[in-house]
Amino acid sequence: MKAERRTYDTGRGIHASRKRSVVSNNQPLKASRLAYKLPIIFMILFLGMGIVVQQNYQDITYFMNRPITKVIIENQWQQIEEADVREILSDYMGVGFFDFNVQGVKGALESHSWVAKVTVKKLWPDSLSLNVNEEIAIARWGENSLLNQQGNTFSPDNSEALRSLPKLIGPEGSQFIVMEQYQILSQILFPAGLRLTQLSLTARGSWDLILNESIQVFAGRLNINERLERFVNFYSAQAIAVVKQIERVDLRYSNGIAVRNIEEDLSGVAVR
């Protein structure tokens, strides 16, 4: 009885050992065969793609690097002519997408007198996006230049067409001071219905004004705002028929103003 039990137990052990060896030997064989085949498959695919690219190189290159032929305008302009933009772009269009000179187009457009800033973007496969910020003129400066909102000057060819803008005059480099004074004085004059059409700063530092395109005002160098407020109070208290006759005003008095009418040679003094 004991011998039979030993034979049976040993047989189970042999059977289990053989079963484990079968399981452990099959899995590594499958993985090693797949790992051996993958590089060959990738190499065949790579060679095949290389042959296709070589045979169709020109077509693929043209498809990826098509010439830019379309322009998308992102905003509207008041002073810039579209014909001017087309003429500038004509030297750059037709070039492949990746070879297109974005910086060249940006610089060429920003050299236009009415252009403040340009944003240029390429849109694959064959388009160009343009966002052109136009200069905004708020006043004329001297005879042929204009002032923008930042107080910088620019000189477009058609500046004479903007005669309705106020004219500011001053020594070279004084445009920021003159523009700031213009804004302050315009607010003082507005309640009386007076419009500042010209403001001049002389080399000696004196301020001269022209109101409503006809009334000359000499404000001097000191206390300009206070002197102009004095005139506004006087002007607002007069009848319409009286103020229409005013030709010249001198504010260079400590406690009054001198007014000259169109039809009179004498000056009158209005005391505050």
Describe this entry's structure for a reader.
The protein is α/β, with parallel strands linked by helices. It folds into three domains: 2-55; 65-134, membrane protein fhac (Ubiquitin-like (UB roll)), CATH 3.10.20; 138-271, Rossmann fold (3-Layer(aba) Sandwich). It contains seven helices and 13 strands. Strands 6-5-4-7-8-9-10-11-12-13 form a ten-stranded mixed beta sheet. A three-stranded mixed beta sheet has the order 1-3-2, covered by helices on one side. A hairpin with a 3-residue loop joins strand 2 (115-123) and strand 3. It is rod-shaped and about 110 Å long. It starts with a helix and ends with a strand. The relative contact order is 0.06.
Considering the chains and any ligands shown, give keywords for the structure.
alpha/beta, 7 helices, 272 residues, Rossmann fold, 3-stranded mixed β-sheet, Ubiquitin-like (UB roll), disordered N terminus, 3 domains, 10-stranded mixed β-sheet, 13 strands
In short:
With 272 residues, this protein is an alpha/beta fold.
CATH topology type of the largest domain = Rossmann fold
Give the domain tally.
Answer: 3
Unreliable runs, pLDDT <50, ≥5 residues? 1-25
What name goes with the CATH superfamily of the largest domain? Answer: Cell division protein FtsQ/DivIB
Q: Level of helix content?
A: 40-55%
Main beta-sheet strand count, sense and barrel state: 10 strands, mixed
Which of globular, elongated, flat, extended, rod-shaped describes the shape? rod-shaped
Structural class: alpha/beta
Element string (H = helix, E = strand): HHEHHEEEEEEHEEEHHEEE
Gyration radius, rounded: 43 Å
Distance between the termini: 143 Å
Strand content: 25-35%
Calculate the mean pLDDT score and round it.
83
Main sheet strand line-up:
6-5-4-7-8-9-10-11-12-13
CATH A-level architecture of the largest domain:
3-Layer(aba) Sandwich
